[in-house]
Amino acid sequence: MRSDKSNHAPLGLKIAAAAGLAFMHLPILLIFLYAFTTEEKTYQFPPPGLTTQWFAVAWSRPDVWAALTLSVKVAAIATAAALVLGTLCAAAVSQTRFFGRETVSLLVILPIALPGIITGIALRSAFSMADIPFSFWTIVLGHATFCIVVVYNNAVARFRRISGSLIEASMDLGADGFQTFRYVILPNIGTALLAGGMLAFALSFDEVIVTTFTAGQQSTLPIWMLEELIRPRQRPVTNVVAMIVVIGTFLPILGAYYLTRDGDQIAGAGK
Amino acid sequence: MTIVAESFVLPERRSTTGRLSDFFWRHPHVLLTVLLGPPLLWLGIVYLGSLFALLLQSFFSIDEFSGLINYEFTLATYRQLLSEANLDIILRTVSMAALVTLVSAFIAFPIAYYAARYARGKWKALFYLAVMLPLWSSYLVKVYAWKLILAKEGILTWLFEKLNLLWLLDAWLALPVVGGNSLSVSYTGTFIVFVYVWMPFMILPIQAALERVPANLIEASSDLGGTPAQTFRHVLFPLALPGIVAGSIFTFSLTLGDYIIPQIVGSSRLFIGQAVYAQQGTAGNIPLAAAFTVVPIVIMGAYLWMAKRMGAFDAL
């Protein structure tokens, strides 16, 4: 009889899980409230009044726009590089057998497995040793390095699900390797690549630790925020920017989720 | 006769891409080189190259008078690393990382267990998104949110005041090590933000491990008279352990290398990441900064080796 109960979670578990989720979400919701506060100098709670004027102020700030544009540019190019490199690597690891396959997957994961500060300082000292001046491209170089793994993970998971007989059938019907890639493999991995690309974009758009080491004078949006955090100049503008960043990263994540969820339900049921 | 025999072999493809494709088919290792070459060159040269160059620098030393790097092999920098003040930093960071990992596991477990065992269909998808969104949302925004919360005039003080518990907060802040002027300049604040930012990384690995535990195993345990506590202790926990260890790789490593959180929310006492940042930046002592980065690499190497032996990688 006892096992009848097992489909209902015990109350304690429900409370603990709900409290945990609340702990994860409430602080982010608070950002939305603070974007409307009339208080300029402190983080006073509850806000003395609500206003939408800070959106207009933030909109007319050239430094915010410059940082935003730089972040989008860096993220777009880093994502493109990561898409090419990650897909190539995933294809090699999942479709062929060769000596050192395990090492390759470890090498791809290493840039995010080690703390970001190590990647950052390693790149920085390498740039200064090679006399490469810090520029837009040094930021992109750093970002692409740790974005590869996101694309790689998504692509490898999808490649594993493509049946080998599908590719053989295409070959038997006379398609060459490129045609097979174009008409059989690409449609199958397309959504996984798009999802991986979106996550890579979100990762790059938000990255701060490696960027502080590889950026020269320019500031990406996270660097701009970090400076505001250390030396606040206009808190309400920071609140508005923080809210925009939250929305800006949520959209690609939701998109990536919807692109990959169908596959997960087939392959992920019990792992 | 000859026509039939010939038709078994397809004529060679005429187009360039066709010929290239045939060439790759006959020489699979060339195709492999073409596929693996660019990513390996990138990661090998850009990443491993810089990492190696950095580690090499930890064996150089800095000239105390000129402030220039002395390119001679020496262990002097490591001797400097093991000085009392620096060991203090290492110990503080490692114990913080261990504590953050432990508390993260406590908070993450109920969420993961509920998602793995009771959530179904729509709820399961909702749980997944509810975990993924905070995990992926902006790191700096999360830290910023806590700066708002922990500030002296912020929501937490207000909440304590409304509950008439302000004396409790003041008593806690008066404690020697964990206290401070306000929560946002105390170890307690640093600790809360660390847990908040890295805890989501713990949930999915635990959930993956728990999803592989058959429900009838738990029923069998209670049928045999095990209390819920016994079932947890002897059945559920051992089976979830690889997932917890897998998740702890993230929480531990990420706490170990972070230098932004303790800089924004915390006391002035340094963590490893801040020490690295200060040594390479204002102090200009790249060799010592490099030696400092060796510490997390060695600790994580040992940790990963141990985790692999416990089978934690299957839960990732």
UniProtKB/TrEMBL annotation, chain A:
- List the signal peptide residues: none
Q: What are the TM regions of this chain, as residue ranges?
A: 12-36, 64-92, 104-122, 134-152, 240-259
Q: Where in the cell is it found?
A: Cell membrane
> What is a biological process (GO) this protein takes part in?
transmembrane transport
Recorded hits in SUPFAM superfamilies, A to Z, give: MetI-like
Kindly indicate whether the keyword Cytoplasm belongs to this entry: no
UniProt keyword Nucleotide-binding present = no
Entry's Gene Ontology cellular component terms: plasma membrane
The record ties this protein, via InterPro entries, to: Bact_Polyamine_Transport, MetI-like, MetI-like_sf
What membrane topology was assigned to this protein in its record?
Multi-pass membrane protein
Keywords carried by this UniProt record: Cell membrane, Membrane, Transmembrane, Transmembrane helix, Transport
Task: Return the similarity comment.
Answer: Belongs to the binding-protein-dependent transport system permease family. CysTW subfamily.
- Name listed for the protein in its UniProt record: Inner membrane ABC transporter permease protein YdcV
UniProtKB/TrEMBL annotation, chain B:
GO cellular component terms, A-Z: plasma membrane
- The answer, when asked if Membrane is one of the entry's keywords, is yes
Q: What keywords are assigned to this protein?
A: Cell membrane, Membrane, Transmembrane, Transmembrane helix, Transport
Instruction: List the transmembrane segments.
Output: 30-56, 89-113, 125-145, 165-184, 191-210, 239-261, 282-306
Q: Name residues in a coiled coil.
A: none
Look up the record and give one Gene Ontology term from the biological process aspect.
Answer: transmembrane transport
Compartments reported by the entry? Cell membrane
Q: How does it sit in the membrane?
A: Multi-pass membrane protein
Query: Which residues, if any, are the signal sequence?
Result: none
Q: Which family does it belong to?
A: Belongs to the binding-protein-dependent transport system permease family. CysTW subfamily.
Which PANTHER family does the UniProt entry name for this protein?
INNER MEMBRANE ABC TRANSPORTER PERMEASE PROTEIN YDCU-RELATED (PTHR42929:SF1), INNER MEMBRANE ABC TRANSPORTER PERMEASE PROTEIN YDCU-RELATED-RELATED (PTHR42929)
The name under which this protein is listed is Inner membrane ABC transporter permease protein YdcU
